[in-house]
Every structure is written in structure tokens, then in C-alpha cells.
Amino acid sequence: MYPNGNHALKDVNLEIPTGMFGLLGPNGAGKSTLMRILVALMEPTSGEVDICGYDLMKQRKEIRGILGYLPQDFRFFAKYKTYEFLDYAARLSGINRKSFRKKAVDEMLENVGLFDVRDRYANKLSGGMKRRLGIAQALIHHPKVIIVDEPTTGLDPEERIRFRNLLSEVSENDVTIILSTHIVGDISSTCNCMALMNKGEVSFFGSPQDMLKQAEGKVWRIRVSSDELHEVDKQYPVISTIPSGTGWEVQVVADEVRGYEAESYTPNLEHAYVYYMENKLNRWRND
Amino acid sequence: MEKRLKEVACEMSFITNIQSVAKYESKILVRSWFFRIFTLLAVAFLGFFNFAMLLMEDSGGLWFEKSVASNIPYFSLLLLNTGQAVVAVFLSSEFLKRDKKLDTSEVFYVRPLSNAEYVVGKIWGNLRVFLLLNVLILGIVMALNFMAPGIAVDWQAYFIYFFLVSLPTLIFIIGLSIFLMLLLKNQALTFILLLGYIGLTLFYIQDKFCYLFDYMAYNLPLFKSTIVGFSSPELMLNHRAIYLFAGLGFIFFTIFLFKRLPNARRSHYPWLFLSLCMFGVAGTAGFRHIRLILEEGEVRALYTSINNKYVHTPKMVIDCYDISVEQKPESIESVVTMKGAALAASDVFTFCLNPGLKVEEVREGEKALDFKRDKQILLVDFGRKIEEGDTVSLSVRYAGRIADNFCYLDIPAEVLQEPYEKELLKIDKKYSFQTPDYVLFTPETYWYPRPGTAYSDVSPDWQQTYFSRFRLDVKPLPGLVAVSQSGNAPYQSVSLIIGRYEQKSFESDSTLYSVWHIKGHDYYQAAFDSIRDTIPGLVRNLRDNLERTYKLSYPFDRFSVVEVPAQFYSYVRSWSQAQEVVQPEMVLFPEMGCMFNQMDFVRSKKNQLRWAKRGGREISEEEAEIRTLNSFLWIFSQTEGNYNFSSGSRGKFNISSQSNPYLLFPELYNFRYNIYSSAWPVTNRIIELYLQKKADNNGWEREINGISNNEKANLLMEKQSFKELLSDVEHRDLLNNIISLKGYSLFAPAEVNIGVSLFRDSLYAVLKRNEFKNIRFESLLDTLGMISRSDIRSGISAWERPTPLPFYTIGQPGVTKVTNKGQESFVLKQLVSNNSDYDGMLQLDIQARGNGPDIDPRTSRKLPLAAHQTKLLVTVWEDAPLQVDVNTLISGNLPNVLNLPITNIPEERERTVDPEGDFIVQNFSPEAEGEVIVDNEDALFSLSEPAVVGLLPKWLDKVEDTSFKYAGVSPWRAPLQWTATTNAAYYGRYIRSAYVIKSGNGNQTATWKVPVPAAGQYDVYYYVSKDNELKYNKQAGGEYHFKVAYDEESEDAYIDLKKANEGWEPLGAYYFSGDTIRITLTNECKLRSVTADAVKIVKRY
Question: Which residues are bridge partners to B560 per DSSP?
Fold first, then answer.
């Protein structure tokens, strides 16, 4: 709860299954707060959280034992080398035997493609490498629940794809990965279950397909002149504007389009997200 | 079983987690440049320091560290500890800041370890690196120590000091700094606060409040003797416990406050509880520490009050003591048989025995006597009246341990608590020792019953000590040897020393000279191999010198130097020069001579050879050994010891010296004579100081201080009576001077009557007649008064009042060479005036050439000078006198002593030689007509406002002693403000003073307003004095810049100091028509300092 009485999270009621779970929402929707509560960095003012049968209020130690966490900000390191950082995380997660730990660390470094830079100080790694080190430390102890907060922000497309694939691979091992993001693509390519958060509340819960379904027949392609473009932008939420010959090809989401020659278009998750925000939550115009 | 397994696993993970966090925290610390540089500096500095001290051939000094091997780790750790305390503050507060700053820290917070594991791990990580650094340094020091030839290694001490000094300090400062960091959430603020705290404890609080705040153990006495080890282990451990537990308290509190959700709800509360427990323990230890010290003060006050209660009760004088003592591991058992005479008729007589000793039985022959004990007092009831002068015999059986806090009841608490230190290391002050291996009881402990009471602050009656015959029978524990007085002469009191002693001795002129050293401490023997036969002669020389200097002979047939633990401390008493380190027939010398660098005989010998070589003259081994031995013997004949140099704010210096406790004067005087008065406790001291002709601090010391101790004493005596000053703790250090001046003035009339040397001889004769007897001061004065035909005793009446100080004008002595009929004579004339309303006395010493074996009485004499009297002193000499020294004794003159050299000797022919005598000059006026002098002491003199100084210097200045107006100044580092100082070279009618300031840009000025008697032509003069810069630096030179403002005009005037003569130097000639002129001197000068003294205008006719 903020000092002004507003709630960062309100009436959040979710049951997250195993596999990849996507938490989508605009900036400030409360995703990170939810994540921080789930990893026991913050205490909720009220409510209950149950993770793998453990009560978060009472059994933090047990929960911390089965959690892996990659925070949103993961840039600044103490003066540790890459393998030391991972070794430290492994030790604190209870991998006490030195030989086990060394093997685990080396394997993990291999998996995330950091073995060659294992002796480099973590601070000197590139942004993508740092993220990979981040996921490596979250996975080092084979947690049952992995919580990653905005992991792909700031990564180049290649690194982003690599990162998604890494998560997908892990998700096959009967674990729950909670991926918080505001990048729709992260979810569409990896998650089989997702929730949409807005203003601290869960406004959608289901599969990405369910979300797509709601947007079917609501995405339109309109060809307009330059003068009309302005009008269209005022009337409908515009997803993309592509110049074409004499005018513009515009994609909009709407229940129906009047006054323009519109052609229905097969929606993707991004369209569904915009449709949902605009029409279901009436967010688009209000903001 | 399963539960137990779980518990074990839990404990294991607790330790493993701590180790994991610690490992990586240590890594960060070791990788930080700050720590690396500190380590490098610490290793380099301490390594080099110890190398130089222990292994380098030509390094001198630090014998204190080398002679007592435990001091080597103690010294190194003390230095390291100060540094690491500062560094630890920074580095440990850093970890919380780092956790806050680094966003990656959160991935460790979500691990299953507990807050306690995390915080403790972090602290342990920091701590262990520092501990390793300590181990590394100690390892280096130990290796060097091991390699050093002739220096023992105290293995134990390395561990003990590590646990006593480093560990509690580190735990405390790390705990405190992370706690503050968590509370304040700001590293800079935490750092400033802690540095302030460290600075405050190091430089300001220091040993105040019984060194309670001394968390670094900088002031806590931790000296470990080679004879008795630590002398106050309880106090020491208790003090360190304060900081160890307070540190743990802070650490546990930090766990409680740590900003991370605990693993289980409320799992952090036990840490709060634990932290409060630790604070509780620390508080209790602190309270105990204060209690231990305050209780001592209370007990001491109680002892004194009990002494006061019994001080006037009847007592005996004991003629014969028969003491038999048996040493037990933890106590002594004694039977003392005394034969004495009653000093007053009574049934009950008062004795004093250390309150730690329990009296079991008192008998008179076969009859058991009733007795009562009131702490130290033993009241023996004979069951019948013993008439005055009747002789009785009694024996007392007692046992127990000596209460050390019974000693030195006369010494004020602040003096008792003054630190005893040598080269940074602090030593415990102990007055007696009683361990299974070692015993040292001096008379101060009252280890056997003595008649009367111990120190009383209501009556000096307690001081009345008598000479008795002693027979001592000691049964020490196996392997130990007892040392005491021989019993061949009467003593006022005796001491008992038991230890693993070995004796080295020789006999010379029927006196047995011995060194009693502890087994294994015979390092000194090898150093004097080649002069073994010469040693008796050298010792004889020392004895002859002392006997000649003080005109007194050594009365005993033995003399021993006995090695005692360095913690053994003695104080200067107001009533006697004798301190406890000097006992009849013996000197108690600190173990291995550790307090004296010249006791490093091997190195001293090498130094002697080297110095001689450097001086261009090679000396033989024997000669070097002789010189080395003499420098040791010098310890027993030098009057001052322990020069203490301090400098206040820039340019103000102070040097003080204490009288040397090892001076053997008491052997010649105090253990042989006793002068006693019921009214005045210091009568013995008066005679002592008078016989020693104790000179006031000589020139160089006065020059540094700007005022001598005698001068200070005079200024105090003007305000307070002698009686008040005797109990004035603040000016204890001046007591010698005050007493000595009182003695001089008391005997001055007698000296005037029969001459100084005759009077002294009379005093010696009276003393000799009363050897080993008590002399009443009043009757001594009567006897001396009769001899000298003067009323000395009446002088005492003035002691109840402050002393009004006369002021004298001392003229320049002039010598004229008169040749008459081929006969050459030198006529010395000098004018002296007493310008005050009080009669006074001067001491005149004339340094004349060609004095024969008989001392000319005219060369040293007292001159009475009545109020407002002027005398012309005329003496005639065969050779030209060199200098006249005038000591104004009790006077307001500054400097008190003027050394007036005679430079110019004009010649006059064919005239009769002036008659000798002291001629009273009537209506003498020192001022010449038409001459006006304005001195810096006058109201017409003013100084410019001082330059703005920072708050800190101002604050520091306030702490300085400002009870005396004049300070010492040095031209090499001149004061930044105008500072008053005195010197014979300055002008002044009574006070030859001036203001000195560092040269600058001319914005600081001194101004003399000079009244002009009448309009006319005037010569203007300035009084020039040359300071050390001009005297010793041939290159130095510069002009003083003056501005002469008159009749609305202002002219610049200059004096070239190098060319100028000392004294009145002309500034120029002016026509003044107005009634006042202003002469201003600026501080603009090429010399280092500028001196503002006096100006003079002289009208031309």
C-alpha cells in the first residue's frame, strides 16, 4: 500500500500452474510488486500466498529454498568474477559439497554460454551476458519456481530469442516459471498460460490463445490518404501505420470500422493485448 | 533422534552459510584498494620499525621495548590497532552501503539463509581479514624478534595482546559502525561520526573517566612485567569485556534491525533479546570498571578519615623491632616484636598496619593483650597505664595480603590517575607486589606495625617518624631470596623484597655494593668485562661527588641496586624529596633498567665508540665501557629527570621537568636526619632544598617557557598564602620552587648577618649532632638564630599570609679600571633600588677571575634592600669581574634572575680607588629629565586586533593553560598572535617583557602613545634585543618598520636589526609640537619574528 492509501496490488487471485506463466501488463501495473512479494522481498499488507504448499507468511525459509529469482535490475555487481558470483549463489542455496558445486557451476556456465568468460569480473560482462548470468544464478540450485522480472528489457533481438529459448528449455523440467514482462512477444513465443495486469488488478487470466480469440474479427486494415490518417488515429487505436503508394496502410483494433474500406485481419497477441486494453478496460483513451 | 539430526543439520547450515557469506565478503575486502594500501603500509611501517629496532646495528633507543620482550608485540599492536580502527570503520560501513547500491544483492536475499547468517557472515568476513592482518604483522614481528640477538621472545605476549588489544577493538568498532550505518543510512555521516568519536577518544578523552572510553586500549595499562606479569588482570579483562560485549551487542542489534524479511515471523526477536543481554553485560563490566576505581577513592578517603581520628592519640617510639616473616603463596605470616617507650602516658597506644593484614594476636611477654582494629589502625590496650618514657615490649602476630590502595593517601586522585607511560605504552602503577613468586613491600605499605597513624590531612603529627633498630628474619618460599636493609644502622622504616634474586657485589671502603637482579637478568655483566677492576673506583667517584656536592656523607655500610617490576611507581611528596624508589641502603630500579635507554649497555658501548670516532678521537674498549657505566651511574646523581616538552598553539612552548626520583640525596640526608614541626608539614623539605641549593630552572628551560618556575611561584605567593599553596593540587609541580623560595627568605637575615657559607656550615654542624634523631624545626631555628644572631623564627609568622612582592630596579653594573701609582684595580659599581612598599632581599653573585682556593665572601651574598631604598654597591677587584648575577628571589621582577655581563671597561688613571661598601643613595630617581619611556607593560601601549582565526584553533586555544600571562616563544616557529614573553634582554623597569609575533604583511601592529612633555626637538629610540635567529644565523637580517605619527604627520622609520646594537637604538630626530605622538611597529619584516618592546623620547636642549 502506498502512503497515499492507493494499493499497488488489489484483489489479486491467481493460481499458477507448472510451465511458463506470463505476467503481462503496462509499466506500473504492479507486476514487479507481485514478483517481490512472491520472492519474499516484500510483505503484503494482507492476503495469502501459497507456493508449492508452503505458506509465504510463515514458511519463508522453505519457499526461499525452492525459488529462483532474477530481478528486473541486474546490472551492478560487487567485485566478483563470473564463476565466483555463481558459486556464491550456489553456496547460499545449500550446495555445500565443493565438488558438486564446481560441477554445477561449470555446467550452468556452459548452459548459459558464459564458460569462456568465467574468470572475467561480472561487472565487465555485456548486458546480455549479465542477464544470462542472472538466469544462471536463478537456476543453479534447480528451483521449483523461477521468477524472472522483465528479463528481456534492453536486450538485442538475438539475445532476446536466445534468452526465451533458454527459459523454454527449463520450463520443460516440471517447474513453474513466472515471467513478468511488458513485451508481448516474450509471452506469445513461450507461455502457455498468462495473466494480464492493470492498475494492480488481474484483468485477464488464461491461455494466450484465449486472449487471441477475444480479438478475432476485431483487427482491421484500412487504406487511407494522408488527410484521413489523422482522422483514423483520432477514432481508433492504431497499431501500425505503413506508407503505401499514395496513402497509408493502417492497422486498427475495433469492434467495427465505419466510413472506411476495412479489411479484417488475423490478430496476433499484440493486437489482442491492445484490443483488451482498449475495449475491455477502456484504458487507451483514458490514459 | 530425527529431531536431533535436524538440529545438527540446522547448526551445520548456520555455520556453512556464515562461512559462505564471510568468504565472499572477505574477497571483496581483500580486493579493495583501500585495504590493500593500508595492509601494505602497515606491513612496511611496522616491519621496518621492528627491523630497525631489533636488528639494525646503529639504532639507538627504545630499550623499554627491547628489554621487556612483551613490549615488542604490545607496541606493534597498539600502532596497528589505531590504524585498523579507522580503516575498519570505513570498510565495514561499506558493506551495508554496497548492499543498498548493488541491485544484484537481492538475488542473495532470496536465498534460504537467515538474516543472522547473512549479517554475521558479512561481519565475520570483514573481521577475519583484519584478524589475519594482525596475525601477519605479529608473524613478521615475531620472526624479527626471534632473529634479534640478545633479545628475549615472549611467545605468550603475542597471543595475549592479540586477544586483549585487537579483538575487542575490532568487534566493537565493526559492530558500532554497521549499527550506525543501519540507523543513519548514510555512510558519509556514519564515517564522520565515527572518525569524530575515534579522534575524541584518542586526542581528548584519552585516559579521562578512568579510561572507560578507551576502546582501543590506547590508555589502558597493559604492560606485562618479566617479573610479575600483568599486575591488574581483573581490571584489564573487565575493561576489554566492556568493548567485546558492546560490540557483540551492536552486531546482534544489527541482525534485529536488518532490512530483509526474516525467514520466519518474529525470528529476529531473539536477536534483540541477545543484543540487550550483551549490552547488559557490557554495561555491567563498565559499571564494575568505574566501581573498581571509585571504590578505591572512597576507601582511600575512609582510611584518611580514620587516620585523622587517631592522629592525636597516644603513641610510642619504637627503639627495637624484631620482625619474623614467613612467605605463603598467597599471603604472609608475621610476628613482630617491638620494644619502645611511651611518648605520652596512656593505657592504649595507637599503631598502624596495612588494612589487608589481619592481626591475630598481641602479647606482652606471655600475656595476651586486648586490641582493637579499625581498618588500618591497631589500638593496643596494655591493661595498665604506661607512663611517659616508660619502656614496654609487645609482639603482634598477623597475616594476610597487602591492600595496595592504602598507599599514597596524600596523593590526590587526579595525580594517582595520571598515566604512567613510556613510548606510548601504558604501565600500571603499583605500590606493592604480592605474588607466589614475588613480594615487594616498601614502608609506604605499612607491612609491619608502626607507631601512630599513616597520612592525615588534619595534622602533620603523623609524620613524626623515629629511628629504630631492626632485626629481620624472613622465610621465603623455596627458590626465592629475600632482600632488605642490613640492620646495621638505625632506620625510620624498612622494606621487604622477595624474589628469584641473584646478587653481584663488591666491597670498597668497608661498604658492600650490590646489584640484586632477577635470575636471568644478568645481561649487564658482559658489557663491563674489561673494566671489572675499575668498577669500584667509578662507584667511589659517584659517592665522592655526591658527598662533596651536598657536603653530607653516606651513612650506611651497604648499598644495593635492586631490580623491581617496572609497574612499581612512586610519587613526589610535598614533605620530602625521598620517593619510595630510594630506600635506606638501596635503590629500587625498574626491571632490566627498562626505563633508561643508557641501560642498553651493548648498544651504549657501541655508541660511545662511534661518537668518539666521530669526534675525531678513538677510544679504547675500556674507555667506552667506563663511559657507559658512568652514564648509568649518572642516573643516581642527576637532579632532574623526565623532561616533558609540549607545544601549545603555534609558537607557544612549554617544558617541564620532574625531580629525579633516583637521585641518592635521600641516602645522605633523609634516611639520616628528620626535621619535624607540628605546625608545618614541609619543614624537612625546606632544609632539604636549602642544602641542595636547588637552582631554578636554568636559562634554556626558562627561555623555552618564557617564565621560570620560581617566577611562577612568586606570582602565586603574592595571591595565596604558603599554607594555601601547600594544599593546592593545581600547582603541585611548583611546590618545590615555592618551598625553596620560602627557605631562602627564611634564612636570608641570618645569612646577611654571618655570611652565607658560615651559616650553611652552622646548619651542617647542627645536623651532624642530631644524626638518626628527630629534630624539632622550631628548636633548629632557635639554635641557628642564636648562632647567627638573628630572629629566624619570626619569619614563619608570615607564612600564614600571601607574600607581597617587592619590585626592584637593577642598574647595569659598571666597571672602571683605576690605575694609581702603578697599582691596577677594578671598581665595580652597581645601583639597585627597591621601588616597592615592602622590604626585600637580593642575592648577588659576582663572577670574578682569579679566585683562590678560599671563596671570597663578596662573590656570593645576600643584600637586604628596604622599601623605597636605593643602594650603590661598590666593590674593588684585582682582576676585572666578568658578570654580575642578580637574583631578586621573592619579587615581582621578571625575569627573576638577571645575568648582567660586563662588556665595556673604561680606564681612569691616577685617582684614588673608591672605598668598598653598600651606600644608601638618597632621593634617587631613575628617570632622566626630558626623557619619556613607554614600555609594552604600560597602559599607553596597545596591540592591533588579532587576525581572524578559525573556530577550531579558537576552541583548542581555550584548552590551553592561561594562568600565566607570559609564554615561551621561539623565533624559529614564532606565534601567530602577539604573545607576551619575558627575557633579560628586553626593556622593563621590573618586568622585562615584550610581545613577539611572526613576521607578516604588516597588518599586525603594536603602538606606543608617548606623551610629549613640551614642544621641542626630540630623539626617538627603540629598545633593541636580538633573538636566537639573529644570534645564530649569520645570514639573517631585516628591518623593523616603524611609523612615527605626530602633529598630523606620519613618517616611516626603520631599524636594521643586524647592524643595531642591543639596547636603546635611535629611530630619528623629530620636532614635536603636539602633546602626544604615536609610534607604530608593524609585523612586516624579513626576519622570522618581530618583537615589540619599548620606545623612548629624549628632549634635546
Answer: B514, B586
Query: Which residues of chain B have a CB within 8 Å of the CB of A74?
Result: 103-104, 107
pLDDT of A5 higher than 80: no
Q: Measured between beta carbons, which residues in chain A are less than 8 angstroms from residue B33?
A: none
**Buried residues in B922-932 as b, exposed as e (16+ CB within 10 A):** eebeeeeeeeb
In 3-state terms, what secondary structure has residue B47? helix
- Residue pair B732/B713 in contact (Cβ under 8 Å)? The answer is no
Quick check: A88 and B108 CB within 8 A? Answer: yes
pLDDT single digits (tens) B49-76: 999 888 887 666 788 998 999 999 999 9
How many CB atoms are closer than 10 A to CB A175? Answer: 18
Given a cut of 90, whether residue B429 has pLDDT beyond it is yes
Digit-coded pLDDT (tens) for B556-611? 999 999 999 999 999 888 778 888 999 999 999 999 999 988 888 888 888 888 88
The helix (run of H) or strand (run of E) holding residue B1053 is strand B1049-1056
Best A88, A146, A150 member to test B by mutation, with max B CBs in 10 Å, is A88
CA distance B987 to B934: 10
CATH 1.10.8 at A213-286, yes or no? no
- Kindly report, residue by residue over B468-495, the tens digit of the pLDDT: 999 999 999 999 999 999 888 999 999 9
B879 with B850: CB under 8 angstroms? yes
pTM confidence score: 0.81
Task: Output the CA angle B225-B230-B236, nearest 5 degrees.
Answer: 145
- Nearest-by-Cβ selection for B106 from A41, A91, A96: A41
C-alpha distance from A211 to closest chain B C-alpha (Å): 33
- pLDDT grade, residue A285 (50/70/90)? very low
Cross-chain residue pair A64–B261, CB shorter than 8 Å: no
Q: What's the fold here for domain B931-1099?
A: Jelly Rolls (2.60.120)
CB-CB under 8 Å, A64 with B263: yes
Listed in sequence order, the DSSP H helices in chain A are: 31-38, 60-65, 82-92, 98-111, 127-139, 157-171, 184-188, 208-215, 226-235, 269-275, 283-286
* Mean pLDDT in residue range B327-331: 93
Point out the residue among A42, A60, A69 whose CB comes nearest to the CB of B264: A60
Peptide bond into B901 cis (omega under 30): no
Which of B15, B25, B26, B107 to mutate to test binding with chain A, by most A CBs within 10 Å of its CB?
A: B107
Which residue of A58, A65, A94 is in closest CB contact with B264?
A: A58
Q: Is A92 on the interface with B (CB under 8 A)?
A: yes
Tell me, which fold does domain B808-921 have in CATH?
Answer: Immunoglobulin-like (2.60.40)
> Mind listing the pLDDT tens digit for each residue in B91-119?
777 777 777 777 788 888 888 888 899 98
Q: What is the mean pLDDT of residues B179-196?
A: 85
Chain A nearest-CA distance from B98, in A, is 8
Architecture of domain A19-206: 3-Layer(aba) Sandwich (3.40)
The helix (H) or strand (E) run that includes residue A194 is strand A193-198
Instruction: Report CB contact under 8 Å: A61, B31.
Output: no
User: Closest to A91 (Cβ–Cβ): which among B20, B27, B103?
Assistant: B20
The predicted pLDDT at position B956 comes to 47
Would you state the pLDDT for residue B501? 96
Q: Please check the confidence at residue B374 and state whether its pLDDT lies above 90.
A: yes
Nearest chain A Cα distance for residue B652, angstroms: 51
Helices (runs of H) and strands (runs of E) counted in chain B: 27, 48
Quote the minimal CA–CA distance from A71 to chain B in Å.
Answer: 7
- Domain(s) of CATH 3.40.50.300: residues in chain A: 19-206
Nearest to B103 among A67, A76, A137 (CB): A76
Of the candidates B105, B132, B168, B120, the residue with the CA atom closest to the CA atom of residue B15: B120
Pinpoint the residues of chain A covered by CATH 3.30.70: 213-286
